[in-house]
Prior knowledge:
Low-confidence stretches of chain B: 1-7, 728-742, 801-823
Order of helices and strands of chain A: HHHHHH
Low-confidence stretches of chain A: none
Number of helices of chain A: 6
Largest interface: A-B, 37 and 60 residues
CATH architecture of chain A: Orthogonal Bundle
Shape of chain B: elongated
CATH class of chain A: Mainly Alpha
Strand content of chain A: under 5%
Number of helices of chain B: 44
Largest sheet of chain B: none
Strand content of chain B: under 5%
CATH topology of chain A: Helix Hairpins
Mean pLDDT of chain B: 83
Oligomer: heterodimer
Largest sheet of chain A: none
Number of strands of chain A: 0
Radius of gyration of chain B: 43 Å
Distance between the termini of chain B: 98 Å
Helix content of chain A: 55-70%
Amino acid sequence: MTDPYRLLGVPATADDETIRLAYLAAIRACPPERDRHRFEQLRAAFEAIADAQARLSHALFDTTAPTPEDVLDALGAVFQPRRPSEQRLRRVLGEKP
Amino acid sequence: MSRKAKANPKKPPSPHDMDSAALAERAEAELALSRHKEAIELYKELLKRERRPVWVDGLAACYAGRAHSLAAKGMLKEALVLWRNRQQLCGKPLVEGPYLTWLMQAGERGEAVRLLADPSLPEAARAELETRLAATLLTLPSDTQLPDLPADSALLRHRPAALAALQAYGQGDLAALGVCLQAIPFRSPYRDLKPLLKALALLTTDSAAAEATEATEVIARLPVDGPFERLAAALRCAALPAGRWLTALRDLDENGRQLVLDLKGCPDPLRPLLLELAKLGDQPNPGQFFDLLARHRRALPDGLAANVCRRLLPHASNRLKFHADVLGTLPEVELSHLAALTAEAHGDRGLAMPHWQRMAELLGGDPEKKRQAALIWRRLSVMDLAPLEEAGALYPDDIVCMERSVDLDPDQRDTQLRLIAELRHVGALQQARARLDQALPRFPKDAELLLEAVRVALAGKAFKKAVGLAKRVLELDPINPKVRRLIGQAHFSHARKQIKAKNHPSARKELEAAAEWLRGSEDGATLNLLRALASDDPASADGAIRDAVADLGGALLGGFHLALEAGRLGLDAAVLLARGKVDLTATPAPAAVAALARALEAAREMDTTLRGNALRTALHPLRPALRRAASGRYAEAEQRLICEAWLRRKEKELLRLYADAALKHWPRQPLFVYFKAMAQYADMPYNMPERMRYNLEDAAEAALAQGDRRTFQRIQDLLHPIEPDRFYPEDDYDFVGGLADDDPGAMFEMLLRMGGEEALFSMARQAMGKKMFDALRKELGGNNKEFARALVELMAQQARLDDIQAPAPRKPSDINQRNLFDD
């Protein structure tokens, strides 16, 4: 399973209520009739970390290998989107350095 | 005849020796076969003889065809040379077809600009060329002399606005950007720059969601392969969802990648990592992923590399040493955890178990980690079970694990409940009661737990206590049908005892008490039957028995209930069946047989005191009728249900008859093949003929193909004693450190290193039994370290011997047929 914390957009330290609210918001944004697969993923993610015992079980027994997407997500906080410079644009268009 | 005179029939004549008509025919044929190189030579020869227009066109077509095939291989320069030959030798226009595209793709912008200055260039070609050159003109250094173009050239007139737009975007002056873009007309060669800069402005604006959506929409509308394609491709990549944009970076050039990373806000020190990560794809090899993160760990935020690498280790266990060297040594509990997860990730639960045990033991000693330890013990207890498997499926060792789990964390209500049910199933009623005494004060209003308490009380024949508990269940859940039936059945049991003792008044009293609890029609019919049997008036009783037989479902089902009651009451079944005028000479209908199969299962579930033999004895008078009914027309679901019932009741003859009949209707259906094999060889799989084995193997494959994992598993279990390796191909995963699988010594060494001495001892204790383990320990002596080393040698030696010797067949009693014939 994809990292349930990432899927629900909650930190690893989130409590039951935070996770529940994140789940409700996620399924409101993606109801089953719009994207069944995504909805199932969200539900599985919620069930995996819904309460303290489930979170503990997940931490102990989950064997899912992390993905580059997980790394990107973890790096989210240090990413600060910025406007490319004029020079960068000209380089992309073919300007020689 | 001389050798020279002998002509080679396969070799075509030289073009010089052929007449023009034949040569033209051959040239056309080569062209039609796309053999352009050969066709060019032939047309050239023809044109030497005479410059006929049709041959000129033929040569031009050959050049065009050859140029296209070279361009398709990426040989753009060579394609351009051929296109120019086409112009020079055949007089065809240069600027047509794919020429401008190839020119730009080959980077020959100088030639493109020169073409633009050519006054003979057709207007349409000029407009196209100007559009294609738009991006080039924006990237010329400021001191570059612009091409000698007509003063009204749109390329020159709109260039300042386009350059100013780029500058305004770079400076973040969105107002100026808007003005500049307005100055670029929609027919301008720079027109495609407008949506690109607009999308860029939306992507980099501070207010997020709506603009991001609009940016995505604008990007989706960008023309493909336009003059600003490199910028467009970068924007398309940037608009992809997380993860996908990273992989898509691979398709961009270096400047495009950096632009995307700018837009994403990737800090400079992380860029090399991300670019390498992109190369690994979205599902990278765990080992390579691990190496990459370890190499770039200093650029990553604190602990991120260690955390992700730690999660990768179960999939890249040969990086363990590297992990220790670079990211630090893991404590023993972590090593056990890692070894367990590694084994599980490779589907080897047997190997995982000792590591989980070791980890649970280590955690159990820490008051703050008791809940983790409890969860591990719980997992160990149900590790071999299919999900939702009912109580009664655990082995004694599993129950011990579950007890340890509950002892460490008594707040696990589900585990408590399961444990009590398991203890009741194995008849450990005293332990079950002790567990209930612990659990009920914690969960006093838990109806399921109270219901289990009722079952335990009934199993211990504590009827009054059971009734008291049942009333508590009904206070919490007034319409709970399970508890009503349980108590009603308990009164039935009492009544049966009294009937057996010929104490009919007491029996009737019990039956009236049962009537207060029971609601269902089948229970009502049983009540009437027992009332008749407790009656002091045999004449009226016979009529009541006949009515009860009818209410219970007719001859077959009613006869079964009568025979069952006869067994419970110590009566002669034949006499009772005669009193009920049960006629078993007719062949039962398929629906009646299916109903009997359901009744068999229900009887076992409701009456826990019922022995397996009691059900088989009750079936005895029905067998002839059931044999006849085997050839009836059943639905597949009915056949499955019936065969399952015969399997559970060890009715081998009936199972074989019904499985045979089913296979006639559904040949090679995996489940029925399995039933047939079970009917004949469940107890003696070694006697199974080769043909049956092949049938089973085919059935297992078919079951797997149909997604029927349960049947696959059952066949696998049946064949395991005779073909232990048939469904367990040698595991090819490299568990630790890239060790060869066929070196058991190295494997045990690594186990020792990863799990520690205790994990090794625990595994050895399990493998050889406590008695032998203790004897060995006494004999070998020494400290833990020396003993562990001696054990490794001994076990490796044994493993090598096992490899050489044929595996000893397991005794039939060892066959893992859990949940089959399980009473």
